[in-house]
């Protein structure tokens, strides 16, 4: 049996400890639930974006729109995980007790953040510059594949916890009630609304791409690459877990 890490242990009940300590525990749980909420939104948008990549000829406007829309929940999730990182390494007792992510996730986290930002920034740059700059296309394609590999590992590690965190936040009888649900929902909602507004305003810049799509790789070719990358990552993760 694999021993539990600190981050796998059951969440403490903030009502079962002293009042100051309860507030600190509630902050940790609130941060986790904010991250889970943003992650759930991202998972849906990522799935849609991958589908548009497979049928890029027909779905270029949607690909662009969802790509801009992603910036909202990405900002929320980056901020919430960055806050946990900061609080953990500044030795906040509650965050230290919660513990760090597992070694594999800690190792891949910088690559996941960097590849996510590279995909989004290069995509926005392509929207502004048009189909001409080949270097931007290459950066966008390579960063997408790196992102795909790392996000699969990330989702496999954290997806089982996301439904529980969201369910606890919306339950009438949560096992660990945590104040601030309205603020968490508002943060995600406002970020999504701001990104959606930007996506609508910037959508006309996607028009020059309508008749482009001259790449030699078809949608089925892209799908094959996606499936190969997914298979390699899944096999690698399973082997690493067995060794652990």
UniProtKB/TrEMBL annotation:
The keyword Ligase does not apply. The keyword NAD does not apply. The chain crosses the membrane at residues 34-56, 62-86, 107-129, 135-159, 190-211, 217-237. Residues 1-21 are annotated as: Disordered. Keywords: Membrane, Transmembrane, Transmembrane helix. Signal peptide: none annotated. This is DUF4405 domain-containing protein. The lineage of its organism: Bacteria, Bacillati, Actinomycetota, Actinomycetes, Micrococcales.
